[in-house]
What we know:
By secondary structure, the chain is an all-beta fold.
Amino acid sequence: MSRDDDFVTVAKVGAIAEGRGGTFTVGDRLVAVFLSGGEYQAIDDLCPHMGASLGAGEVFDGAVACPWHAWRFSVCNGKWLDNPKLSVDCFEVRVAGDEIQVRRTPRPKS
Ligand code: FES
């Protein structure tokens, strides 16, 4: 599989409002995609606390608040803001024409 083939179209540009997100299937994963500060960002959809869907959360200052118990995760790198040693996977996002595309393979953890 070539590097370009690793991207999956999840939605059309404009389908996600600023400060909001959505949950999409990317390969065998559920990925939460957000529009934050005019940039699309993608992290694992599954909250590591009790499994809520992070894609249903709202974004403030570059962090999504889990809709169940408000744990906050950076939408840029997936780190839990209360303890950055814990993080969820983070995915590269690109816009191709009018499509939002997410890479299947998560970014390496930093
Ligand atoms: S399930 Fe996400 S904070 Fe509890």
